[in-house]
């Protein structure tokens, strides 16, 4: 939609982001700040406190970076879920306040849908099989009949969360995924670990426990990282391959924070090639959580009449991807 400018707020987990995007997908601003726990995993209340302290400054910076004032914005989009309740409430409060103060429509955005839409925008894919892997999600999805349907997911830990938990126990800093990737490149010994695929779903908790046991038994950290990645990514590749054979999609897109992992990209590209599908990855700069993807998905939703009353804009910590209607994808694509 021409002349549309949407401001998007992301606050579902560790990152507070504010992005401004046009109706044609041009990025006018991308400001963000990530809470890094001093020890352990993400503490929801501490992360929410981080978001509250950075939010006003980041919104101001996004507006000044884009050369816009709040009055120039057409609508305010906000990720209402899924995510951590205390963190979601900070983003929702800021978005509601902006919408009410400047008399702008408020647009509810599902965080998982946003990871998908930013990947589609940046790869120009129209109807891909989607592999969404982040700290909190491991989902294989494709559009069918009005929604993004789930064709496989994790039964317990998300891939990013599993890598972070392993890294934490191994004494590596957060986020652990990139550290595990770095060390895995120096590994050369393949060590047996549990491979758990159940139907179309994967399970990572047994793999994590077994990899940590190897460390205690004195195996080299580099070799354990290498083996852990090999197992975790091969399990995912197996279910992606079956979903691809079933859906017969001609495109495969990788999105979410873990999409930056080069070995995972290599494995999924091989699967896509086997099935004559093209493979694409969201750019590293937009792989992790950000406000741009919320603004872009908000623009798509708003141009199809999706808005929400401030009074009804409750956060939805467990809002599943396949519960969201997607009116902007035309029926012709599926
Ligand atoms: P969600 O999007 O589900 O709310 P999140 O906020 O934790 O989860 P992102 O910001 O999308 O997710 O991604 C962060 C995750 O990506 C972390 O688990 C991090 O370890 C992982 N990650 C980032 N880079 C890499 C990499 N190169 N290899 C593996 N994992 C990575």
List keywords for this structure.
single chain, 334 residues, alpha/beta, Nucleotidyltransferase, domain 5, five-stranded mixed β-sheet, 9 helices, 12 strands, 41% helix, globular, binds adenosine-5'-triphosphate
Question: Can you walk me through this structure?
Answer:
Helix 3 (111-123) packs across helix 9 and helix 7 runs parallel beside helix 8. The chain has 2 domains: 5-116 and 286-323, Nucleotidyltransferase, domain 5 (2-Layer Sandwich), CATH 3.30.420.40; 121-285, Nucleotidyltransferase, domain 5 (2-Layer Sandwich). The strands form 3 sheets. Strands 3-2-1-4-5 form a 5-stranded mixed β-sheet, sandwiched between helices. Strands 8-7-6-11-12 form a 5-stranded mixed β-sheet, sandwiched between helices. The protein is 41% helix and 20% strand. The mean pLDDT is 96. It has helices at 44-66, 85-101, 111-123, 159-169, 176-184, 205-216, 221-247, 262-274, 291-302, and strands at 5-10, 15-22, 27-34, 75-81, 106-110, 129-133, 138-144, 147-153, 197-198, 201-202, 251-255, 278-281. The chain is of the alpha/beta class and 334 residues long. The structure holds adenosine-5'-triphosphate. Adenosine-5'-triphosphate is lined by residues 12-15, 83, 111, 134-137, 160-161, 163-164, 175-178, 181, 256-258, 260-261, 288-289. Adenosine-5'-triphosphate (ATP) binds at residues 12-15, 83, 111, 134-137, 160-161, 163-164, 175-178, 181, 256-258, 260-261, 288-289.
